[in-house]
């Protein structure tokens, strides 16, 4: 990452991965959480599109990776997700490293996943969970006229990227 990150941003065992603790601000009306701040995330990871997905308990999304796209996931609940990361970038100083972390309702985090890092997550809680993603590339390009930037591993039983 080219831009220095604040001290409270956590680095994992994989080069260029950043875990950003998310803080909930609560009052009698409910809560608010800042998902993205332009001054916190390096420019190469700034979102150009966003979506929210709901994942049912026990369901896995991924593993897959991107050639050019970075993901900016936010895990805020209302469930718990087990996130799996594998560094598949041959030129990376942490090539082959793996990280697994539980995040979500009790430990809300944003996660920057650069291209070439295989990623998956599983809802390990007992209720439907939401995940926000602010990708730095448009899905299927401008007006959805380009190939999708994904290498999918989930249907390959011999893949080294397995979710337990």
UniProtKB/TrEMBL annotation:
Listed Pfam families: dTDP_sugar_isom
Entry-linked InterPro entries: RmlC-like (IPR000888), RmlC-like_jellyroll (IPR014710), RmlC_Cupin_sf (IPR011051)
MF terms (GO), sorted A to Z: dTDP-4-dehydrorhamnose 3,5-epimerase activity
Domain of life (superkingdom): Bacteria
GO cellular component terms attached to this protein's record: cytosol
EC number(s) on file: 5.1.3.13
Entry annotated with the keyword Isomerase: yes
Keywords: Isomerase
Site entry: Participates in a stacking interaction with the thymidine ring of dTDP-4-oxo-6-deoxyglucose: 139
Catalytic activity line of the entry: dTDP-4-dehydro-6-deoxy-alpha-D-glucose = dTDP-4-dehydro-beta-L-rhamnose
Keyword Transferase: no
Top EC class, one word: isomerase
GO biological process terms held by the UniProt record: dTDP-rhamnose biosynthetic process; polysaccharide biosynthetic process
PANTHER family named among the record's database cross-references: DTDP-6-DEOXY-D-GLUCOSE-3,5 EPIMERASE, THYMIDINE DIPHOSPHO-4-KETO-RHAMNOSE 3,5-EPIMERASE
Function recorded in the entry: Catalyzes the epimerization of the C3' and C5'positions of dTDP-6-deoxy-D-xylo-4-hexulose, forming dTDP-6-deoxy-L-lyxo-4-hexulose.
Identification of the protein by name: dTDP-4-dehydrorhamnose 3,5-epimerase
Organism name: Frigoriglobus tundricola
Taxonomy of the source species: Bacteria, Pseudomonadati, Planctomycetota, Planctomycetia, Gemmatales
């Amino acid at each position: 990452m080219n831009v220095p990150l604040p001290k409270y941003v956590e680095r994992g065992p994989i080069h260029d991965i950043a875990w950003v603790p998310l803080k909930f601000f609560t009052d009698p009306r409910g809560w608010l959480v800042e998902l993205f701040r332009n001054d916190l995330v390096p420019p190469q990871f700034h979102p150009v599109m966003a979506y929210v997905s709901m994942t049912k308990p026990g369901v896995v999304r991924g593993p897959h990776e991107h050639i050019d796209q970075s993901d900016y996931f936010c895990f805020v609940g209302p469930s718990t997700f087990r996130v799996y990361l594998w560094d598949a970038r041959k030129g990376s100083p942490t090539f082959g490293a793996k990280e697994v972390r539980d995040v979500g309702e009790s430990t809300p985090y944003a996660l920057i996943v650069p291209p070439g890092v295989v990623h998956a997550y599983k809802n390990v809680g007992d209720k439907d969970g939401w995940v926000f993603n602010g990708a730095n590339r448009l899905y299927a390009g401008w007006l959805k006229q380009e190939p999708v930037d994904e290498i999918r591993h989930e249907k390959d039983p011999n893949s080294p990227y397995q979710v337990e």
